[in-house]
């Protein structure tokens, strides 16, 4: 299977640069995964498509304001840090720009010395391990100095940091938002729960590998990035009860899907566990736990587009995306949504 099989033409003006004022007023393309039938609705209509006995699985990760701007100690040369993974309490793997300023031993300051960093070593892909020093609580300082690490295709400045967080975000650790969940409001979730739909939470800390293009011609040759996940006993029980009773497990986002399919046994049942997943889902993968998926529109030739093609079929997804372009849907992180059922 070729990476080029997942290419489509997208007019640049359809890439959403800012979130809508009302989260739930985004448009919603509803796609029948078996029939290929397409309907056009709004996201707030999702409550009418869910029923008693269904289970909605949400990723409760919270995005860190992980982009820091500072200067090299001594010379004052400007530097940009992007936090990727926490290695230890005060040690992080980071991406730096410009990298040539960051040899082991180099020191940098942020916020007039509120936060300081020392380069410890160079690791894979030219990333660095750095050690931070500061007074107080690191997360509070990061919230004060850091900016949201918006994807490169978003060029507008985000006015409100919380608009790149889901309303149910709880566990700090992501470098990017699980964007399918950005459409939910607390009021919409309450209405859905009142219908008898079970709400369950997993955690998957989204890495920047989400935005990395597939650079190989053959899909099977692509090396997937690894991300940390948590599945609690409570969530595992809710999902298993749903499967046993014949309800649908509806994943909110590709991130929740990756957790579920990593853990699932051949019958679609899951168990509580914590770990790292580098699962790569592409056609003709058969889903074990996920019955339906709420998702955004994804980049051409991306692993995310490959995942949704596995659930709905490549031809159905191709036609749905053509329809979305024709109907001028908004694409990517702050864009409109799709419900594959």
Structural notes for this entry:
The protein folds into 2 domains: 3-63 and 160-340, QueA-like, CATH 3.40.1780.10; 67-145, Thrombin, subunit H (Beta Barrel). By secondary structure, the chain is α/β, with parallel strands linked by helices. The strands form 3 sheets. A 9-stranded mixed beta sheet has the order 2-1-17-16-14-3-12-13-15. Strands 5-6-7-10-9-8 form a 6-stranded antiparallel beta barrel. The chain has a two-stranded parallel ribbon with strand order 4-11. A hairpin with a 5-residue loop joins strand 5 and strand 6 (78-86). It is built from 6 helices and 17 strands. The two termini are 25 Å apart. Helix 5 packs across helix 6. It has helices at 138-145, 186-194, 233-245, 253-263, 303-312, 314-326; strands spanning 27-31, 38-42, 55-59, 61-63, 67-72, 78-86, 91-97, 107-110, 115-122, 128-134, 171-174, 198-204, 227-231, 249-252, 273-277, 292-296, 337-340. The mean pLDDT is 94. The radius of gyration is 21 Å and the shape is globular. The protein is 19% helix and 27% strand.
